[in-house]
Amino acid sequence: MSAQDTWAQLSGGISLTDLIVMGDFLLTGDEPYSGVPSPWNRNDLEAAARRHGRRPGVRNLRLALERIRYGSLSPQESRLRVELTDAGLPEPHLNHRIMRGGALLAMVDLAYPDQRVAIEYLGDHHRTDPHVFQADIHRRERLTAAGWNVIFVTAADLQGPIPRAVFLVRHALHNASSTTLPR
C-alpha cells in the first residue's frame, strides 16, 4: 500500500491537524535540506482522497488537502502553522531563507518576511545538545542584528485552548505593523 493511501485511510481515526501534518511531510520530505524531492506530490494526495472518498473521515481529508503545504520540516512546525492560521493570523512562509548581502543568513522554520518576524520551533534537542543550543543563540543574534524579531517556540507554547505561541506571534506582527522597519 502506498504512503498516500495509508494517509487517506487514517482520515477516519486521526484529527484534521494530524492529517495536515502527515500531508505536509508527504509533500516535503527533507528536500529543503537534502535537495532530494519527495516521491509524492499534491496530485498523489488528491488521487488517494478520491480513491478513499467514501470512507469515514473524508470531510477531514478534503479539509486537510486545502491546508497541506510544502516546506515544513517537522510535525511541530506544521502544528504551529495550523495553530497560527486557526487563530486568524496570516499564513507564514515555511523554512524561509533569509539573505543578507547575497549570502544566506539563516533558514528559519516560519517567517513573515514583510514584517521581519522569524519563528523557530525548538524541540528538546535544542536544549540538550550544547552545539545546537549555541547555534540557536548565534542565529538569533545574527537575525536580530539584521532587524528581525525572532520568536522561539517550544512544545509548551503549543499547549492549551489558545496556545502562547499565538499570542507571541500576534504581538510581534502587531508591533511590526506599528513601526517602520529598517531595511
Number of helices: 9
Strand content: 15-25%
Count the E strands: 4
What is the H-and-E element order?
Answer: HHHHHHEEEHHEH
Radius of gyration: 18 Å
Tell me about the largest β-sheet: 4 strands, mixed
Mean pLDDT over the residues:
90
Distance between the termini: 50 Å
Q: Give, in spatial order, the strands making up the sheet with the most strands.
A: 1-2-3-4
Backbone structural class: alpha+beta
Low-confidence segments = none
Helix content: 40-55%
Gross morphology is globular
Question: What does the secondary structure layout of this molecule look like, with pairings?
Answer:
Elements: H1 3-9, H2 16-28, H3 31-34, H4 42-51, H5 58-67, H6 75-86, E1 93-100, E2 103-112, E3 117-121, H7 125-128, H8 130-145, E4 149-153, H9 164-178
Parallel strand pairs: 3-4
Antiparallel strand pairs: 1-2, 2-3
Notes on the structure:
The chain contains nine helices and four strands; from the N terminus they run ααααααβββααβα. By secondary structure, it is an alpha+beta fold. α1 runs antiparallel to α2 and α2 crosses α6 (75-86). The protein is globular, with a radius of gyration of 18 Å.
In short:
With 183 residues, this protein is of the alpha+beta class. It has nine helices and four strands.
Keywords:
alpha+beta; 4-stranded mixed β-sheet; 9 helices; 4 strands; 50% helix
